[in-house]
Amino acid sequence: MAAASGHNARLLALALALLLTALHLHGVVCDPSHTHFAMVSRNAPSWRPDRGGQGKVSAPSLDTCGCGPAPAPADPLKAASLDKCGCPPAPAPSPEPSPEDFLNEKLQALYPVIQAFKATITSDPRGVTASWVGPNLCDSYFGGDMYKGFYCEHPPAPPGATLPKDNTTLTIASIDFNGYGLGAPSLAGFVDAFPDLALFHANSNNFSGEVPDLTGLPYFYELDLSNNNFSGAFPATVVPLGRLLFLDLRFNRFVGTVPPPVFDLTVVALFLNNNGFYGNIPDNFGSTTAEYLVVANNQFTGPIPRSIYNTSANLSEVLFLNNHLSGCLPYEIGLVEGLTVFDAGGNDITGPIPLSLGCLGLVEELNLAGNQLYGHIPDVLCALAKTGKLQNLSLSDNYFHSVGRRHCLELVRSKVLDVRLNCIPNFPHQRPALECARFYADPPQHCPFVPHIPCDLPGFRPPAAALPSAVAAEEGGGGGGGGN
C-alpha cells in the first residue's frame, strides 16, 4: 500500500513538473520581470467600453496569468492571482472634468454637447474623436492637438448691441470636419447647440438626417454639407438664414424643386450641384447676390431665367451644365458684364447666339457645347479672344452652319474654339448632311434674333445702321435659317 502511494506521488509530481514546463514555454506564467505584455497592452485599444459603446475590444481571459486589465473588485481571487504575476495595475478611467477645469462657463456647457454627439458617431476612420476628451475644448487656439475640428475665438458683440467685442471669453466659433469621413445619423442637437458658432464645414463625411435649424445662431454665416448622405427635399431650415454668405449642398441626394427664397439669400457662393433637383429654375434667379453659383448636374428643366441680367453687379461664375434646360439662349446673358465663366453645356438650349455675348469682356471660359444651338457663330463673340480675356470657347455638338470669317476661323485654327459635330460645310468632324437638313427643316423652337449690341465694341458697328447685306450677315449672323 505504502509503495503504491509513493509511486502515485512520484507520478503526480512528474505531471506537475511537465505542466509547469509547458506553461513556461507558452509564456503564461508571469514573474516580476515579465513586462512585455503589459507594455503592449498600454499601447493597444482599451477594452473598457466608453460612454458611446464604441471601441470595444474583448478582454483577455483572467483564468491564466496574462497581464490584462484588472478584475473587478468583487473577484479578490483573480486579483490575488495577478498580484503574484507582478502585473502593473490597470490605469483608472479618466475622471469627468470638474467645473473649475474649464476656461469658462461657455465651454463647460458645450462639453456635454460634444460628448453626446461623440456617442452617436458610427464611423471615424481617422480617429478624430479620440482627441475629444478632457476639458481643453479650445486646445487648438493655444497650438494643441485636442478636440480636432473645433476652433475657438472671442465672440463679437451681438448684432445691434452697443457692447464692445468680448476679448476675455473664448468660445467655439467654428467647426471644420472637412475630409474626416465621420458618420452620424443626425446633426440636429449638435450644430445648433453652439450659440456662438459662425461656420460649420463638413465636406466629405457620412452625415445624414435632417439639416438642423440654425436660425437661433446670431453669428452663423457659412454652411458646407457637401459630399454627404443627406436626402429628401431642399432643407427648409436653410431658407430663413438671412445672414448666410456661403451655402454648399452639392454631392448629396436632395430631390425636388428649389424654393424661390433660396435666390433671395445674401450669399456670395451658392453650390447646389450634383443632387436630384428638378423643375424650372425660379424666375427670381436674378435676385441672387452670389458671385459663384452652380446648379450643374441636376434635373432642372425650362429656360435659363431672363432675370439673369439683374446679377450684373455681382455674378462672376455660373454653371448650368448637364441639366435638361431648354428654350432660347437668353439675350440678357450678355448684360452680365462681370462674367468670367459661363457654362451651359449638356442641355437642350436652342436658338442663335445673341450678339450681346460679345460684351462679355471679362469672360475666360464659355461653354455652350451639347445643345441645339443653330445659325451663325458671330465674329463679335470670337473677337473676345483678342479684345477680352477669352481662352476657351466650346460650341461643339450643336447645329451651327457657319462661322465668322475674321476672328472665329483664327480661333478654330488655334484650337481655342471647338466646333466639332456641327453643320459647317467643309469642316472636319461635322454631323452628316442629312441630319443637318432634317434639323433645319424642323428646328425645335423658333428663337428671335436680336441684332443689337448693347456695348461699344471697336470694329463692330451697330447693325441698326444701313449696312450692306454681306456685312450684316457677317456681323449679325442671321436667324435660324440656312442649312448645309
Automatic annotation (TrEMBL):
InterPro entries, alphabetized: Leu-rich_rpt (IPR001611), LRR_dom_sf (IPR032675), LRR_extensin-like_regulator (IPR051582)
| Keywords, ordered alphabetically | Repeat, Secreted, Signal
Subcellular location per the Swiss-Prot or TrEMBL entry: Secreted
Q: Give the UniProt entry's GO cellular component terms.
A: extracellular region
Predominant location category: secreted
Where along the sequence do coiled-coil regions lie? none
Pfam families assigned to the protein according to its UniProt record, in alphabetical order: LRR_1
Write the signal peptide boundaries.
Answer: 1-30
Q: Which PANTHER family match?
A: LEUCINE-RICH REPEAT EXTENSIN-LIKE PROTEIN 3-RELATED, LEUCINE-RICH REPEAT-CONTAINING N-TERMINAL PLANT-TYPE DOMAIN-CONTAINING PROTEIN
Name used for this protein in its record: Leucine-rich repeat-containing N-terminal plant-type domain-containing protein
From which organism does this entry originate?
Oryza nivara
